Amino acid sequence: MSERTVYADNNATTMVAPEVKDEMMPFFTDLYGNPSSMHIFGGQVKKHLDLAREKVASLINAEPSEIIFTSCGTESDNTAINGILTANPGKKHIITTRVEHPAVKNLCQTHASNGYRVTELSVDKKGQVDLDELRESLDEDTAIVSMMWANNETGVIFPIDEAAQLVKSKGIPFHTDAVQAAGKITIDAKKTPFDLLAISGHKLHAPKGIGVLFVRKGTSISPLIVGGHQESGRRAGTENIPYIAGLGKACEIALQNINNEKVDVGKLRDRLERELLEKAIDASVNGDINNRLPNTTNISFKYIEGESILLLLSAQGIAASSGSACTSGSLEPSHVLRAMGVPFTRVHGSVRFSLSRFNTDEDISIIVDKMLAIEKRLREISPFTDD
Ligand code: PLP
After folding, report:
1. How is domain 6-14+258-381 classified at the architecture level of CATH?
2. Ligand 1: residue whose CA is nearest its atom 14
3. Mutate which of 151, 199, 200, 243 for ligand 1 pocket (most atoms within 8 A of beta carbon)
4. What is the pLDDT of residues 161-216, one digit of tens each?
5. Is the pTM for the entire model greater than 0.90?
6. Ligand 1 atom index nearest CA of 100
7. Ligand 1 and 200: CB distance under 6 A
8. 326 in catalytic set
9. The domain over range 18-253 is classified in CATH as 3.30.360.10
10. What is the 3-state secondary structure (H, E, C) of the chain?
11. What are the domain boundaries of the chain?
């Protein structure tokens, strides 16, 4: 591997920010009390738990009492959906979309095999949902609507404001998987009427193994993990204080920087995309370019294999990700790109670059240079052409 590495896979996971690591350290040494303990060791730590909860709440303009700490985004999604289904056993219809992360998609499919009716809303070729289809799908039996805020593969942002308002106007609970959106774009719980919202720490420069579920005041859910009284009885288990403190710091930084980052990271992404599209032999962007996360671009290089691109990029020290087969341990090409109707020849040659505030202009130059050379090399050995 070359010495200079470039990390452009921030939708998979992010580096823990140095300030976040510093925030966590005292909780591995001096501040080791259990926040539920009545004594001074517990009390000291409880203060930090409360503070972190306030910081996380501020990121999405929620109340601290609406924040539940979990172990990851997947647990938050599962708690949201199962929590509502268990609390409303009479309703047997779930609405979601065809492009959700497996944390929602596979859970809903499990419910489908257990007798639930699951409607997966389609997306158009830009990866956008149709709110009329959502309106027509809602019925008396609908227990929950779960729609991601932003897509992990393409960055496409769904119209969550309108969708939540529509669903709430029928009195149906609305959950959104905001794992990719939180910290990258503004989320306002006072403005958008979602009932439940999932966040994952490791997508916003906090460690892996910490997540958040927002539950709007007045929304009744059954806990997924039952035991002690932690998290107001909504998620049992002693709180992971070091990680919670780290997540609080990560949310504080994300909130302070959200507008600047949108612009700065967006400029890097736009430059990367522009140069690749201009100079590549055959490249096209997947997803709605006017409604996208500022850090993500998903580009298809027609007729060449995404895996081969990734392996060659990786050999040169560049980390990206692919929507084609195998790369994520799955044998299926991206369900997101297929749902968008992207032709197989392009699905197989798709690469996702996802940036963060730790990327630089130099990183972009390196990616463009290496990527163009790899495209040329792979085309020379590709058996496929349009001719
Ligand atoms: N939802 C989305 C949109 C994601 O991108 C991910 C992770 O990639 C998850 C949920 C799962 O989060 P976690 O890895 O914290 O379980």
Report:
1. Alpha-Beta Complex (3.90)
2. 73
3. 200
4. 999 999 999 999 999 999 999 999 999 999 999 999 999 999 999 999 999 999 99
5. yes
6. 3
7. yes
8. yes
9. no
10. CCCCCEECECCCCCCCCHHHHHHHHHHHCCCCCCCCCCCHHHHHHHHHHHHHHHHHHHHCCCCHHHEEEECCHHHHHHHHHHHHHHHCCCCCEEEEECCCCHHHHHHHHHHHHCCCEEEEECECCCCCECHHHHHHHCCCCEEEEECCCECCCCCEECCHHHHHHHHHHCCCCEEEECCCCECCECCCCCCCCCCEEEEEHHHCCCCCCCEEEEECCCCCCCCCCCCCCHHHHCCCCCCCHHHHHHHHHHHHHHHHHHHHHHHHHHHHHHHHHHHHHHHCCCEEECCCCCCECCCEEEEEECCCCHHHHHHHHHHCCEECEECCCCCCCCCCCCHHHHHCCCCHHHHCCEEEEECCCCCCHHHHHHHHHHHHHHHHHHHHHCCCCCC
11. 6-14+258-381, 18-253
